[in-house]
Specification:
3-stranded antiparallel beta sheet, 9-stranded antiparallel beta sheet, 19 strands, 2 domains, single chain, alpha+beta
């Protein structure tokens, strides 16, 4: 039985504004296990380290995995079976590397694909978006419509994230850890090396593992007394803003296609291994909240399995027509011209640096 029309209610303006998932997680060691959040460099008044915000009541919220980082974990699944058939496989060869657009930090707006033979097609796709037609870009880089993209170095076309997923821990206790490195033998005492006579030599001995090196009071993870939750939102209202020009039939096909990809991504489980010391799994002791949220604020229970999403996405992709897969080389001359701001692209200075951070999916 066809599932192509199963979720058309989500695409109607009277439909839900979003689907929201609140999924309790826990470390593999258990609810009281130690987990290691992401660490961030200092800057803009932030001292660096874990991102922990404290509220007026004394509670706190610790960022475990950011929106960008979650996107980076989810998007590459579309390069694997059974998802690969849902999107064109666009690969850029750069030296000995083969990099999928699914792994590029800025997706369709990334320098890697901009400085290849795909540039003209992508530029045309972004310009079509500005004119109200997202179909050409969906043929080239459909996941850019799901996870968001900003062509900040060229056309300035910007598409919001349809999916936003974040993992946070609540009321955390911050821990510290210390370590001591002991060399295999006493190189100096045993006269295998000379006594270091200055700081530079001592630092070199330390770096190369010839002397004892203590490491004290470094980041030791956190214990989340208030639990760990993955909160994800699928913005149906954002999908309803996508158009294929003034063609109602093509617009419906486009929206179904992007909805299908979004549902597949949304119902996947991007927990598991996040980083050393942070392996998270679903907490079986706490129920998840999976709801449709309407403009009125009404919340209705939602039941869409991952297999339901795959079945729908497969039909929607066939109806829309998945774009052609391509492998193209990185163009060194295009890159040189791009850096100089030659041709029809320009560098943006400080504005461009900010765009690099905001447009990327990296944490």
């Amino acid at each position: 039985m066809s599932s192509l029309k199963n979720y058309d209610a989500f695409l109607e303006h009277s439909g839900p504004a979003a689907i929201v998932l609140k999924q309790p997680l826990m470390p593999v060691e258990g609810e009281d296990g130690v987990l290691f959040p992401a660490t961030y460099a200092s800057g803009d008044g932030f001292d660096g380290g874990y991102n922990i915000d404290t509220d007026a009541s004394g509670g706190n919220v610790c960022l475990i995995d950011s929106v960008g980082s979650q996107a980076n974990r989810i998007e590459p699944i579309f390069g694997q079976d059974p998802y690969a058939k849902l999107v064109p496989q666009i690969v850029v060869t750069a030296g000995e590397k083969h990099v999928s657009i699914l792994e590029a930090g800025h997706r369709a707006g990334d320098a890697l694909v901009r400085c290849s033979s795909l540039h003209a097609d992508l530029q045309a796709g972004f310009r079509a978006v500005l004119k109200g037609d997202a179909s050409p870009l969906a043929k080239l880089a459909p996941t850019s419509l799901v996870f968001g993209v900003w062509d900040s170095r060229d056309t300035q076309a910007k598409l919001p994230r349809v999916i936003a997923s974040t993992i946070r821990a609540y009321n955390v206790r911050k821990l510290r850890r210390s370590a001591q490195f002991n060399p295999a033998t006493e190189y100096v005492n045993d006269l295998l090396l000379d006594e270091p006579v200055d700081k530079a030599t001592k630092d070199a001995y330390s770096e190369r593992g010839f002397i004892h090196v203590p490491a004290t009071a470094t980041h030791g993870g956190v214990i989340a007394d208030g639990g760990v939750v993955r909160t994800a939102t699928l913005g149906l209202a954002a999908i309803r803003l996508l158009n294929a020009g003034n063609d109602a039939e093509k617009t419906l096909a486009l929206r179904r296609y992007i909805l299908g990809l979004s549902l597949v991504a949304f119902t996947s489980n991007p927990s598991g291994y996040l980083r050393q010391g942070c392996i998270l799994v679903v907490n079986p002791n706490k129920p998840a909240e999976f709801v449709e949220v309407y403009p009125s604020g009404e919340r209705r229970h939602c039941e869409i399995t991952h297999q339901n999403a795959i079945d729908f996405a497969t039909e929607a992709a066939a109806a829309f027509g998945v774009g052609e897969s391509r492998t193209v080389p990185f163009d060194r001359e295009k890159a040189k011209a791009d850096v100089k701001g030659e041709g029809d692209t320009k560098t943006k200075g400080k504005k461009g640096k900010k765009a690099a951070a905001e447009g990327a999916g990296n944490e």
